[in-house]
Write the structure tokens for this entry.
Amino acid sequence: MLAEEAILIGHLNCDEFAMGSSNENSAYGNVLNARDTSRVPGGSSGGSAVAVQAGLCMVSLGSDTGGSVRQPADFCGILGLKPTYGRVSRYGLIAYASSFDQIGIFGHTVRDVALLLEVIAGEDDYDSTVKKSAGEPAGPMWKENPGRKYRIAYFTEALDHPGLDPEIRSAILQRTNEWREEGHTVEAIDFELLDYIVPAYYVLTTAEASSNLARFDGVRYGYRAKEPDLELTEFYKRTRSEGFGKEVKRRILLGTFVLSAGYYDAYFTKAQQVRQLLVERTNLIFKDFDIIILPTAPSTAWRIGEKMDDPIAMYLADIYTVYANLTGIPGISLPLFGHTNGMPFGIQAMTSRFNEVSLLQFSHQMMQQ
């Protein structure tokens, strides 16, 4: 970005180690939703979302491991793009779950988001997971393609889910009817794996987090306990107890458990098998459809503190976003709607891997309506 003469104007807040869906787990305090400061902005990249929402900058960057760009974009009423895994280098990003993490972009217009993606995408000698040949160049991504008719699928189980706000469900179904009237093909398809997505995601990401964060022992990385004369084991215990917040500790402990002897096959191996099934099923869907749409989140932004005592409810808020990270496909949250409670909400669109051109052209077309 600096090489392209971008003007960088600030660092932004996020949940500690990008672990959270509300930006209430930050060492620097809560980020407030600019639309209603009694509500969360979403997480983990809540600071980046609010900076764009409040007009402090045109675009911003965040990291998306399971929805940490798209969900706060949804809560704040702006665009949030997670590119294909391997489209953008992760060099410089502190790893949470290395096979899930991807740099994402917040913005007000599809053109701005696509332009920034063009700048930051591509090969990097410091990240071997970046795909060397990633299909079409990003340059024309923002250009309008008004004549194209899309084949759009949505998951029956997603819109019939009991946790989905009825007003969000109604708005999305109404929009799909409008798309049909415009000549697009829109079909509901069965996706029986939906209930396995969140459990598989949290088993795999916490396992990777347990491994990645092991280096933060106070010797070479991270916070160090102040007492100088501690025995080594006690030094590690004190450092990690003081240096990690409650949510980060919870995920490290969960990840260590699923990787432990006796539980590895029951949890981690099973979750990897679910992930492979999801990839195979997704590839089949994209043989017949151009776009998959889902809600971005099951509700609008909740009030600060509302879910802090119930981590399971917080985790289930990721039900619609973690799918794109498990399968590595690109996803974007489009700010299309407003709720009767005064908060914005959007719709999530996804395409096949490295097909951001179609995703952003579709997004541009939908944002013009």
In short: The beta strands are 59-64, 79-82, 102-107, 151-155, 185-189, 291-295, 331-338, 344-350.
